[in-house]
Amino acid sequence: MASSSSAALTSSTFDVFNTDLQNIALKATRNAAMLPADVAFHRSIDSSFAREVDGLSARVMNLTNKILVLVGTADQPKGRGKGKGRLDSQDDVMDNFHSLVVDSMDQLLERTDICLDDFLGRNKAPAVAINPVAPKKQKQPLPKGHLDPVIQHAAHLQKPQLSFKRKPDNSDAPWYPTLTHKYNAKVPLGHVYTDETDMDNDSVIANHPYRYEITHLTHPSPMFTPVDPIQPRSFEETPLTWINTPAGLQTMIEKLKNAKEIAVDLEHHSYRSYLGFLCLMQISDRDEDWIIDLLALRDDMAGLNEVFTDPEIVKVFHGAESDIVWLQQDFNIYIVNLFDTYHASKLLEFPRHGLANLLEMYCDYIPDKRYQLADWRIRPLPEEMLQYARSDTHFLLFIYDNLRNALLDRGQSCSHSHSLGLPSTPTTTFSSNPAHALLNQALARSAETSLRVYTKEVYDATGGSGSNGWDSLAKKWNKGALMAGGPGVGIGAMQREVYKAVHGWRESIAREEDESTRFVLPNHFLFQLAEQPPADMPALLAIFRSNIPAIVRKRGKELLEAIRGAVKQGLGSKEKNANEDVVMEEAVPKVQEEEPAVQQQPPRDGSSSVLWASSSNNAGSSTSHSSLFGSTFSPSSHNLQSPAFSTSKSALFGKTRTSGPAPVKGSSNIHAENPRFKELVARINSTLVIVPTAPRVMTTTMATTSTSTVTTTKVEVADGIDAATGMQIEIPYVPASQRQTARTAEEKDTIVVVGQARQKKRKR
């Protein structure tokens, strides 16, 4: 056995080794069975025997532990690399022998049987292939907390736009493209493209040199063929190139010309600039990653149009709405044959559509979202920021493959149920296969995104409209009193004037200093200044406490003057509106005095059949004579032709108006001459009682004269009424101490209540 163990085990010597091993194991088993039961007793009385037994036990346990270690190494490829336990004492042998030794040997024997069956061909392949279950990967813990303030906002940096050859234009002047050479052109540069679908309106679409190429694009045929997604290599295996020279940029362009698809992403900065500018561009193909320093190559980027406008190369972006505009604004770069993964995720109805969600879904990679707010002007970039920027495009082509396959699969299933139809872009060539409908929709939406044109938004100081307007900001913050339709007078009007003035001041200073409006004056400070206008400089600085913006510290006097002027204007408009109200109140009586009397017209025949007869030829809507109060207007000879709203004859009071003008003098005593009026006054006053007078009803006879008949009517008149005036006589007030009351004799009357029980007194 010693010779066999020292020599290397081969297939020719395996049989001899196996036979010797079985003989030795059998001999050891027999010797163990022949041990007497009183070994422990002899060990306790013989020290030399005890030493031999202990040494043999240690050798056996050491050999057993070595075997357990070998069994553990056989389980490590299966992901069970913790290994087996150890036998350290006699108690471990008594308690854990079955779990450690017996179970391990059973596993080895079972594995041996399986391998023999596979070798002899006894195991058949399953009818349905079952993919092995992938082991669960432990998610990488996300970093928490805020970024270093130096990374989030590098206040120590000099503004890069100061060194740009082409200075930013912050005015409201319109922007026009300055493209000098048009790569991959189907129509020459300067061609005015007219939309054929809108010939009636004669609309000329300008400012996009590649509109014709985008709307007449023929997509490559491999675009509509499912492919096996190409898994991206790791960061360590993929080369990364930092480009900050024109030579390096040209080398990258030559490599990109041979690519079929590329992934592109941008990093933008807008906090220390009014219009903002691009700082970084990331590009990836299937083999390499590039990061371009746009601050150093700002004047050399137009040559990238040779690749970006090539219709044979698919440009993969995610959420390119802003990227398309930024490329035009800074570099005059345009995109032809765009595939936006955001539109694909929307069509596939994913619960979330961000790039971070797609990276986690398809690549099991979770980017550090904190760097979305980082200051990308920093040079040199920290390693963490480089890895974050690189990850945006490194996995994007793999995501593009999966999304394209998903669109084709979903379109295939939808084509059996209903047809989605072709997109509403007749000039672009799409696949007519119904299974490609969803992919056609994604390409059509991507084409609409690439047709976006950069335009400057004019500041509306009057109406406050637009994304940068004061009214839009007030609506966004739900400030109703500061909106365009707020109160016209009072404190609310003054606050709105201050808000408009401060908002306009912030806009003008931001353009002049080439800073963002957020840097000049944050929004919450803007609303605080409008709602609590400061009266002096200490009050102005107290609003900001210790966080005074740099521009306010520099130009706070201008801000204070703007606030004071707005307060004065707001309060002045309030006083003006109040004065206008007083003038209107004084003008009303003058208008009534100068209003001419309306000429009366005779009534129509047969008008007495109704309560108020209508007169179609009535000259006005009012009369100058009243049967109850007499004349109220001065006579006039002016006639006003208007519809009639009154009548000259009443079925209740009879004829009261005459064809001639009403008398002016003595008309106030007409009620004394009219018996009908006196009768009405008496009837009204008869129901009025003034305490303490007790009314006494008396009967009088009054004659009522009508135009045709005379009747006698009995009217009840209360005592104390003057017959001349028809009014009740006033009784002077007598104080309670001066009143005399007559005593009346009390009548003795006993009230007997039958059947009522006597009430018991309650105990207190």
TrEMBL record:
Major localisation: nucleus
A GO BP annotation: poly(A)-dependent snoRNA 3'-end processing
Any one GO CC term of the record: nuclear exosome (RNase complex)
Domain HRDC: 492-573
The UniProt record lists the keyword rRNA processing: yes
GO molecular function, one term: nucleotide binding
Matching CDD domains: Rrp6p_like_exo
Compartments reported by the entry: Nucleus
Region (Disordered): 586-641
UniProt-listed InterPro entries: 3'-5'_exonuclease_dom, Exosome-assoc_fac_Rrp6_N, HRDC-like_sf, HRDC_dom, HRDC_dom_sf, RNaseH-like_sf, RNaseH_sf, Rrp6-like
Keywords (A to Z) from UniProt: Exonuclease, Exosome, Hydrolase, Nuclease, Nucleus, rRNA processing
Family: Belongs to the exosome component 10/RRP6 family.
Organism from which the protein derives: Crucibulum laeve
Protein name: Ribonuclease H-like domain-containing protein
Pfam families the UniProt entry points to: DNA_pol_A_exo1, HRDC, PMC2NT
Biased composition (Low complexity): 597-638
